Amino acid sequence: MKLGLIAMSATRAHNRELTELGFTLPGFVDRSRVIASLPSLGLLTLAGMTPREIDMEYIDVPDLSDVEGLPGEFDVVAISSFTAQMNEAYELADRYREAGTKVLLGGLHVTALPDEAAQHADAIVIGEGEPSWPELIGDLQRNRLQPVYDSRDRTFNLGKSPLPRFDLLDHDRYNRMTIQTARGCPFRCEFCAASMRLSPFYRVKPVRNVITELRHIKEFQPEPFIEFADDNTFVNKRHGKELMRALAKEHVRWFTETDISVATDAELLTLMRDAGCVQVLIGFESATKAGLAGVETRSNWKAQQFDDYMAAIDKIQGHGISVNGCFVLGMDNDGPECFQNVVDFVRDSNLYDVQITMLTAFPGTPLYDRLLEENRIIEKSAWHLCTLFDVNFQPKHMPPEFLESQFRWLVEQLYGEEFTHERHAKFHERQAALLASSAGQEVKLNEHHYG
Ligand code: B12
Ligand code: SF4
């Protein structure tokens, strides 16, 4: 049996003016250029659970319009896509099925809308892939494939994680690799569309598994740059510290997503720096306390942290780790002043990097259900607009066009060469001062560029 692992792996934005603007602003395109070539860890993980007698090939499909016919010849294909490229995934699935190839679909979008996905597949997996995959493969081999495999009541123990098949990749194509150290996040932001939607429990992967995965990557990329594919690393500080101590011996540089609670633990920050952490991405979401009201469905944790935001950034960056602060534009408690507020916050906090995205209603999120109920989704099922850079909802305090034009204004303010350079220079000056003041002591600072 020949199994094709097909990753719809593009980055996307459909707003033409914004995309054109991006090409002229170095800061805006930097991050997208850096992440543009990440492979599908989901498919590589499932490949790691697939019996060796099954012949497998991994193929990235960044843009279906560039593909004539079918990529590769397979008996069965497992296609993975996030929402933004889901319609392309369906089109490709239909083409394969017409050619007699069996199609398997799974992932975040399929879990949110299984009935829609089932129309384009011979079998779908709802929820995490790992709990259902061995059964699905067994059924395939016995020619007894079922239409639906549901993992939702079978939370996967990350201690049993298979070794992702990084050996299936053409490593010349990728400038960084991903490893997952934890799954889930306790905060429950209304708009969050990350892996907590596959399974609601927060879990960590044992440190030994993470290090084994890293060493496997090193067989192909001796000095890899690692991006942790976690929703929120360091929720469990004990696990985080154990991981950092082990990682320090591996001499790699890495990036991850976390929350500001890391700033409350100086020991953790030092361990992170010594373990090669270059940057943490933190969702601040709004530049005002009032804007944060109701961001989470269960608690109001982020609003409660707001008064400490600036000090936390200062503390983290003072440890030689830069912060990429994320802000969501168009939230219900943010008015037309939110754009200027972000500029002011970024200037006052000296954030090294900043990422702005539009509020986006991904299917499967409480936000999607609420906006649908309030009749505020502009174009239903327009999955291609779920990019984080396109507006597909009626904002509460401004017309959609205003949100779009002010977003572009904000892009110009934040990513202009001068402002970007100013922020980076401040960070580097601080690092130089730190090194000078610690002459004679063992202080390690991580080289600050990506890729
Ligand atoms: C790495 C990454 C990327 C890589 C993707 C590489 C790839 N092909 O997987 C790149 C850079 C290409 C990328 C692009 C984009 N991304 Co991205 N990305 C991530 C990130 C950081 C990690 C994802 C990951 O590796 N998870 C770990 C793996 C193990 O989980 P998994 O992929 O979900 O797979 C598991 C299951 O879903 C299932 N499964 C998955 N596929 C399949 C297929 C089959 C057949 C089966 C049976 C099971 C199965 O089994 C796996 C094991 O359980 C997440 C954020 C995060 N912290 O999770 C955002 C995230 C996934 N990205 C997001 C977004 C919005 C985008 C972009 C739209 C950004 C943009 N404007 O371009 C594009 C969309 C691309 C697309 N194809 O639609 C959102 C997705 C929301 C959504 N529901 O769609 C996330 C959640 C970030 C966020 N919080 O908003 N991204
Ligand atoms: S903090 Fe981040 S990962 Fe956690 S629920 Fe909120 S958006 Fe999702």
Helix proportion range: 25-40%
- The beta-strand count equals 14
If you compute it from the alpha carbons, what radius of gyration comes out, rounded to the nearest whole angstrom?
22 Å
Bound molecules: cobalamin, iron/sulfur cluster
The CATH superfamily of the largest domain is tm_1862 like domain
The strand line-up of the biggest sheet is 2-1-3-4-5-6
Number of separate helices = 16
Q: Which residue ranges are poorly predicted, with pLDDT under 50 across at least 5 consecutive positions? A: none
CATH topology of the largest domain: pyruvate-formate lyase- activating enzyme
Quickly count the domains. Answer: 2
Notes on the structure:
The protein contains 16 helices and 14 strands. With 451 residues, it is α/β, with parallel strands linked by helices. It folds into 2 domains: 2-15 and 39-150, Rossmann fold, CATH 3.40.50; 176-359 and 395-437, tm_1862 like domain (pyruvate-formate lyase- activating enzyme). The model has no long low-confidence stretch (mean pLDDT 93). The chain binds cobalamin and iron/sulfur cluster. Iron/sulfur cluster binds at residues 185, 187-189, 192, 194, 231-232, 259, 283. Cobalamin binds next to α3, β3, β4 and α5.
